Amino acid sequence: MQTSADRQERHEYPTHWEADVVLRDGGTARIRPITADDADRLVSFYEQVSDESKYYRFFAPYPRLSAKDVHRFTHHDFVDRVGLAATIGGEFIATVRYDRIGADGMPASAPADEAEVAFLVQDAHQGRGVASTLLEHIAAVARERGIRRFAAEVLPANTKMIKVFTDAGYTQKRSFEDGVVRLEFDLEPTDRSVAVQRAREQRAEAHSVRRLLVPGSVAVVGVGRTPGGVGRSTLGNLRDAGYTGRLHAVNTAFPEDLDEVEGVPAYRSVRDIEGHVDLAVVAVPAEHVPSVVAECGEHGVQGLVVLSSGYAESGPEGRERQRALVRAARAYGMRIIGPNAFGVINTAPDVRLNASLAPEMPRPGRIGLFAQSGAIGIALLSRLHRRGGGVTGVTGVSTFVSAGNRADVSGNDVLQYWYDDPETDVVLMYLESIGNPRKFTRLARRTAAAKPLVVVQGTGAAPQGHAVRATRLPHATVSALLRQAGVIRVDTITELVDAGLLLARQPLPAGPRVAILGNSESLGVLTYDRCLAEGLRPSRPLDLTTGATAEEFHRALSAALADDTNDAVVVTAIPAIGETSPGDAELAEALRSAAADVPGKPVLVVHVELGGLAEALSAAASTAPQAAGKASGATDGAHPAVRLPPAAEGLPAVAAGPSVAMTPAAEGTRLIPAYPAAERAVRALAEAVRYGQWRREAADPGKVPEYDDIDEKGAARLIGELLARGEGLTISDAQTCELLGEYGIPVRRALPAPTPDAAAEAARSLGYPVALKATAPHLRHRADLGGVRLDLADEEQLRRAYAELTELFGKPEELRPVVQGMAPRGVDTVVRAVIDPAAGAVLSFGLAGAASQLLEDTAHRLVPVTDREATSLVRSIRTAPLLFGWRGSTPVDTPALEELLLRVSRLVDDHPEVVAVTLEPVVVAPHGVSVLGATVRLAPPPARDDLGPRTMPAY
Predict the structure, then answer these.
(1) pLDDT for the residue numbered 1
(2) Mean pLDDT, range 840-844, rounded to an integer
(3) Which of 238, 329, 400, 749 is 20 to 30 A from 847 in CA distance terms?
(4) Could you give the CA distance from residue 519 to residue 577 in angstroms, rounded to a whole number?
(5) Residue 382: what pLDDT?
């Protein structure tokens, strides 16, 4: 008889089941399969479990595990019997196992598709979400091994475990017999189970970032004994910002009699610090970081900001050093920002954290800022901080994260935090690379539905320090997918700040209608032209003349805002001329008061070299008069701010940046952004208009329709049979037609024609008129090369066309000719779906032909596509008018086209084995569509996908 140990030897250790996870409280753990080498760890773990938890697990007092128990719980075949452990520091904190059973409840093997599942969590780690995370992972493992249903028996008093099962969101059945609650639930993901999983993911990842941004105590490791250096500077930045928590300076080289550095308690090791340390800022050479990580982990530090360089950005050796750093930190349940990071900032008055290399704390406000690059981070902070160049007062920065090499904490994690952060209204991100576009797009869509998300995305290769998945999609396609997720996608830092200023304190426009008024006719016309270029609908500019008074500006702006035909107002202004012209402060007050009277529409100012007006619109952060001699950049607290440089390298001077009108009234009064150029103001407004439109449409995203004629099981059976013949393959034309037919997608028959006689026979079978096509790779879908003959009405025309093709292009075996019945006339289009390794499943649509390819006129949507998205997909290509009766042509059947797109989306979404589908051409006629050519490629599905269990990026 075959033993479990024998079976374990037959099945290789499943390394892809290993995963790092973020728990409910923000800490981390590692999940991995249990093996025969874990006997001692299991015994030690069990000894630390309370008698009550043991009773709940075994339904009887069970003080210790027998040798037989230990053998059973550590020897698995990884198919019918599987055990997973959650570990921290290499030690077990929880276990879960399943045993496959048959209909009689006895141990079984496939094809039995049910298993019993049981958990045990150390009491010290209960309430951290360990069991729910393990359930996600053991369910994914079970599905991979052909198990479709779990059964669990739980004592009624074990309410915590019952809640783990009932809250998971799976379809389940409950019964009560012999004093035991029996739960049975299907493992197929449901809308509710996916929603529950993603809500837990958001809470856990947001909490993990919060522990880094709101620490109660900070230790700076690597503080120099003399002024200067990264560690000493960071300590000074923390102290000068007025950090409200406990601050510690650490350096192994400190003399034993040294008690403090610049008033901060000093220690030779993190271990020497009395009390808990939440965050450690590491500023030591890379070779000393491992020992610091070990000290921090043993002391219970929750997170690290690693400023040290010398990691993946320095080459292969540094990349290995970075992997070791992440593994070591995760072993202790710590998260890392960095390495090679610039640092983090939190301006909240009850935190005041400047754990960064920025010499000055930015003004507090409502903008969350993320940058991977330290250089870009300081440039953005400088831009936002300068009075003439950015946000002041309450529209400053809420939190700032510069992630450096982004080895652990990434933009996705920070997005999870900002999603429900009440202190952040607008998110600005500079991304040099996107490590997981599929997840980023999902998170961006949810975040953008709540608050604006503005992104500058790098266009080149990812920096050396960033581990990112390779994508086969063009950069423009990824950008388009981000826009469809609600991301405000801009190209430069200037545009990032411009859009952020407008969105931070102005309402979203209800539409594209723009009123333009001001004291310069030429500046008004320039603004008008830019509005047209950006797709807005401006009214003719109202010229108030150069002698306009502040009162006239006030009346004109009030009237424009009150006019229901306007959705936004752009005010243009040039320097005051004449005695009746208003002063800068007077004009600023006139504009602010008019905007305050009608608060529902955005107002922007375009000014030209108006230093005084820019100063007035960008008033000081404090509404109180400045004391004589007090620097305008100083704060009201005990720690005055250190002034940032007036301009960062590569940035324009102060006057070139937008400013914000600061109303000397109650906080929350609208601030009016002012821009030095019409194109910058209008571009920011156009982005706000498009975002507002997306928000309105996102409120009703549509639905993925059901079709009664789709045979999902039949398609799955056919795919399984085909994949059994090979790892990955492009299936034959007949198999393609059969598979697409299961989803209600008929493909017009095409019969091979290796000889003229065979062509004639095929035509008689199909019925005239017919088309004769060459299907050789260099001629396929290239009607422009002459490889297609259409509307052949009889055998004579067919044979003549056959002779012409062979004379022009070569022998029949080289041309691979086919005969196909003629489809109704219409517009030729192309439908494609592809599984990208980074972005996931993408559906693409465009018109057929060289012109569309040259113009790259193809639109994309992420799968699954809703009915509303299919409608917008068809209309989003530049050549879409050809489908809707352009120049008097007959409009084609776009509803039938949209249905075809939805069916292809369903096929790819239901079956991840379908990695590529191409329908070309698809002729869209006035009534119906005809698919004339189709190819499908299959491959084994990935072991885990975006519907799989929560995991952190692998290292």
Answers:
(1) 39
(2) 88
(3) 749
(4) 10
(5) 77
| Cα 864 to Cα 872: distance, rounded to the nearest angstrom | 14
Q: Which residue has the tokens 């973020």?
A: 22
> What is the band of 390 on the pLDDT scale with cuts at 50, 70, 90?
very low
Q: What is the 3-state secondary structure (H, E, C) of 100-144?
A: EECCCCCECCCCCCEEEEEEEECHHHCCCCHHHHHHHHHHHHHHH
Strands (E), 476-617: 488-490, 513-518, 537-538, 542-543, 568-573, 603-607
Do 444 and 487 touch, CB atoms closer than 8 A? yes
What percent of the chain has pLDDT above 90? 55
Distance from C-alpha of 821 to C-alpha of 840, rounded to nearest angstrom: 36
pTM metric for this prediction: 0.83
Q: How far apart are CA 701 and CA 357, in angstroms?
A: 43
- pLDDT-derived band at 654, boundaries 50, 70, 90: very low
Distances (CA, A) of 347 to 20, 233, 395, 637, 802: 31, 18, 12, 13, 77
* C-alpha to C-alpha distance for 31 and 195, rounded to whole angstroms: 22
C-alpha span between 59 and 52 (Å, rounded):
10
What's the burial of 14, exposed, middle or buried (CB within 10 Å: 0-12/13-18/19+)?
middle
H-helix segments, 699-816: 712-723, 733-742, 756-766, 795-809, 812-815
DSSP per-residue string spanning 384-449: HHSTTTS--GGGBEEEEEE-TT-SSS-HHHHHHHHHT-TT-SEEEEEES--S-HHHHHHHHHHHHT
The pLDDT confidence band at residue 580, using thresholds 50, 70 and 90, is low
Helix (H, G, I), strand (E, B) or coil at 606: strand
Beta strands 343-346; 364-371: pairing state: unpaired
Which pLDDT does position 637 carry in this prediction? 32
